[in-house]
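Why should sequence recovery work at all? Because a backbone constrains its sequence more than one might expect. Tight turns favour small or flexible residues, buried strands favour hydrophobic ones, and helices have their own preferences. The token representation captures these environments compactly. In the example below, the structure is given first.
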């Protein structure tokens, strides 16, 4: 079976590509970069075709999409802090619209679209666990664009197209060199600055579990139009998560409490403004700060029933594997 993975050179996309290749799919990757050279070499040796380009470019899609039965749409502007609404709308919304139009024209059997738990924002106290029917309440421009992209998908579904939407929780695992690496490094020091109470819930998902869910969504019968939250079996408070990340590293973490969230958020606004002209990622920014106060924990029963989804490993084992990957590369 032939599949296109947009965003396939990124952290999650590369794991989806690997899972597909392991199952003998023929895979083409469309991404604005070629990603890690080692990963690219591994994939090319296994027959993966790489095309550098954007989902928002019609000519590129016309070259890539024809002849494929499945599309996994993971392309996103998630990492770009400074471009804001314009880029998110261009890639996550209009890129999705253009991709679906080409896929429909070319007779693609099914599209599996990557959204995010962030479309639901922060669940009210006492509303955890939420589920796929929890209301939309995005907290930032990226998540708002993902809501818009889901609505684009729904329009194509209403017209008869076979599309499945996945909403991953907080993705971690080998290959991530951003937020979770910072979390591991802070916990390794034995001290963690906690802004707020630390009693809000966080719901991780191990990236290999998520990759398997993408393939399950491609292969499951009678799930057209379905939306599924994908996470680990366990959600936990930030305090518990920090201590567990310390535990797998052999550290007892002392949590340093800073209850003043709004002054820190004001500082983040200033820092984002100062760093924007230079195009560098600021040390603190709104989306990262939201981590401290966003309440998320989910009921996974819909994905388990319809997709046969089972998390690949426990949270502790997933964190341990992630730590070993960091250590092997000298990142910890």
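From this structural description, the recovered sequence reads:
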């Amino acid at each position: 079976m032939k599949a296109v993975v947009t965003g396939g050179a990124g952290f999650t996309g590369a794991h989806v590509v690997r899972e597909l290749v392991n199952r003998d799919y023929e895979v083409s990757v469309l991404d604005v970069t070629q990603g890690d050279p080692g990963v690219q070499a591994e994939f090319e040796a296994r027959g993966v075709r790489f095309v550098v380009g954007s989902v928002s470019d019609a000519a590129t899609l016309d070259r890539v999409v024809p002849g494929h039965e499945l599309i996994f749409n993971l392309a996103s502007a998630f990492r770009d802090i400074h471009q804001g609404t314009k880029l998110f709308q261009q890639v996550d919304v209009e890129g999705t619209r253009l991709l679906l139009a080409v896929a429909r024209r070319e007779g693609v059997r099914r599209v599996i679209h990557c959204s995010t738990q962030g479309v639901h924002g922060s669940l009210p106290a006492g509303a955890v666990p939420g589920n796929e029917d929890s209301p939309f309440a995005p907290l930032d421009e990226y998540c708002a664009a993902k809501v818009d992209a889901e609505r684009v998908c729904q329009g194509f579904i209403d017209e008869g197209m076979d599309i499945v939407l996945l909403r991953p929780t907080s993705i971690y695992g080998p290959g991530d060199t951003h937020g979770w690496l910072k979390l591991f490094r802070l916990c390794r020091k034995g001290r963690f600055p906690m802004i707020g109470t630390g009693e809000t819930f966080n719901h991780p998902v191990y990236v290999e579990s998520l990759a398997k869910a993408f393939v399950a969504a491609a292969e499951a019968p009678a799930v057209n139009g379905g939306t599924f939250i994908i996470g680990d079996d366990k959600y936990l408070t930030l305090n518990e998560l920090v201590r567990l990340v310390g535990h797998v590293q052999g550290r007892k973490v002392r949590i340093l409490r800073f209850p003043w969230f709004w002054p820190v958020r004001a500082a983040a606004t200033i820092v984002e403004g100062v760093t924007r002209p230079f195009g560098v990622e600021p040390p603190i920014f709104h989306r990262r700060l939201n981590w401290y106060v966003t309440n998320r924990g989910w009921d996974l029963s819909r994905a388990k029933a319809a997709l046969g989804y089972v998390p690949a490993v426990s949270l502790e084992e997933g964190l341990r594997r992630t730590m070993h990957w960091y250590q092997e590369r000298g990142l910890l």
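A few observations help interpret the result. The longest strand covers residues 26-31.
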